[in-house]
Amino acid sequence: MYTSEYITGIIDWNLLIGDPAFDVGHTIKLIMDIAPNIIDGHTLTMASQNNERYRDAYQSVRPINDEAVAACRASQCTGFLLHYLSGKKDIIATSSSMRRSLTNTIENITKLKIAFPDQ
Predict the structure, then answer these.
(1) DSSP 90
(2) How far is it, in rounded angstroms, from Cα 40 to Cα 9?
(3) Which pairs count as long-range contacts for 3-10, CB under 8 Å and 24+ apart, including other chains?
(4) How many CA atoms lie within 13 A of 91 on its CB side?
């Protein structure tokens, strides 16, 4: 949710009360890992600027636990990577850069190397 130029809230579409790091990690995944791969002309620089504004707005109300957010982001990216690898023909699975982007994010956060059967 937003008003003018400011984020005023996050709706938890699962309608569950939980750790806010999950919602923040999910939103950052959408901003940084999904949008640049599916929106024409949406660059990583633009995504980084949007992410910075989002984080600043969120932190003006409540602190962000960066470790918890990173863990939730990695978990979310893993789910999207599995979706990508499933072979479905949708906007996520047909993006030519999605696999590399999700893999890089997961590896950077976890410090683990992902091996694919086709490598």
Answers:
(1) S
(2) 27
(3) 6/57, 7/53, 7/54, 7/57, 7/58, 10/58
(4) 7
Per 3-state DSSP, what percentage of the chain is helix, strand, and coil (rounded to 5)?
Answer: 55, 5, 40
In a domain, 25, yes or no: yes
Whole-angstrom Cα distance, residue 81 to residue 102?
A: 6
90 falls within a domain:
yes
Does the residue 15 lie in any domain? yes
Separation CA 77–CA 28 (nearest Å): 10
Is residue 89 included in any domain, yes or no?
yes
User: Which tokens hold the place of 50?
Assistant: 């949007």
pLDDT at 4: 72
pLDDT tens per residue across span 36-91: 999 989 999 999 999 999 999 989 988 999 999 999 999 999 999 998 888 888 88
Q: Please give the tally of structural domains in the chain.
A: 1
pTM of the model: 0.78
Domain membership of residue 56 as a residue range: 2-110
pLDDT the model gives residue 91: 85
